[in-house]
Amino acid sequence: MALGRMGLLVILASLTIATPALAHDGTGLAGGFISGILHPLTGWDHLLAMVAVGLWGAILGRPLIIALPVIFPVMMVAGAFLAMVNIPLPPVEIGIALSVVILGAVIAFRYAAPVWLACTIVAIFAVFHGYAHGMELPSAADPAGYSTGFVLSTGLLHVVGIGIGLIDRHETGRKAVRALGALISIAGCVFLWRAIA
Questions:
Q1: Which contacts qualify for 27-31: CB closer than 8 Å, 24 or more apart?
Q2: pLDDT of 64-98, one tens digit each?
Q3: Number of domains, the chain
Q4: Most CB atoms closer than 10 Å: which of 4, 27, 152, 166?
Q5: What is the pLDDT of residue 139?
Q6: 11 is a domain residue
Q7: CA separation, residue 111 to residues 7, 72, 121, 145 (Å)
Q8: Three-class SS string for 95-117?
Q9: What mean pLDDT, rounded, does the chain reach?
C-alpha cells in the first residue's frame, strides 16, 4: 500500500514539473512517420487526454468503447484542417487543458453520460487537440507520413486507456480507475493554471 501511495506521489510530482504543452510548442516538426508516432507521447496533456478517452469509453461500454476512440481522431483531423486554413478558435491551450480536467473528472465520478453527450464532449475536445497540431503540420518535412503516424499513435493511446478500463469490472479495479481519473483531472488543473498564467 505504501508503494502504491509513493507511486502516486511520484506521478503527481512529475506532472507538476512537466511543461503543459510540450507536444505542441509551435517550433515546427521534423516530419515523417516515426516523428508522428512519437509526437503524441512527448506532451502529458495530449497523452493523458488520449488515455482518458479510451478509459471513459471502456467504463461506458458499448457502443462508446468503440465510438469515442473513433470520433476523437476523426475530429482531431477536422481541428487540424481548421488550423491549416486559419479559422480561429478560442484559446487552444485552455481547451486542451480543460479536456484533461473534464475527461479525468468524468472517469473519477463515473459519469454515465448519454451516448450523444459523451460523443459531443469528446468531439469538441478533439478539435482543440487537432487544431494545436494542425498549426505545426505545414512545417513538417513529410506531412502525410507525420499525420499517419500521429493518428496511429493517438489510436494506440486510446487502446491503452481501454486496456486500463478492463480492471474497472472488479471493485478494487473500480477504485483504482476512479483514483486514476482524479489524478488525470488534477494534472489537467495544473495544465489549465499554466495555460491561463
A1: 27/136, 28/136, 28/139, 28/140, 29/136, 29/137, 29/139, 29/140, 29/141, 29/146, 30/140, 30/141, 31/140, 31/141, 31/142, 31/143, 31/145, 31/146
A2: 999 999 999 999 999 989 988 888 888 999 999 99
A3: 1
A4: 152
A5: 60
A6: no
A7: 26, 19, 12, 37
A8: HHHHHHHHHHHHHHCCCCCCHHH
A9: 83
**Would residue 103 count as lying in a domain?**
yes
Alpha carbon of residue 70 to chain centroid? 13
Contact by Cβ (8 Å): 24, 43: yes
- Structure pTM? 0.80
Grid cell at residue 25:
510548442
How many Å apart are CA 148 and CA 150, to the nearest integer?
A: 5
Cell of 108: 473519477
Q: Residue 110: which residues within 8 A CB-CB, separation 6 or more? A: 59, 174, 178
Residue 125 lies in a domain: yes
Cβ count within 10 A of residue 2: 6
Q: Is residue 101 part of a domain?
A: yes
Q: What's the domain range around 108? A: 32-196
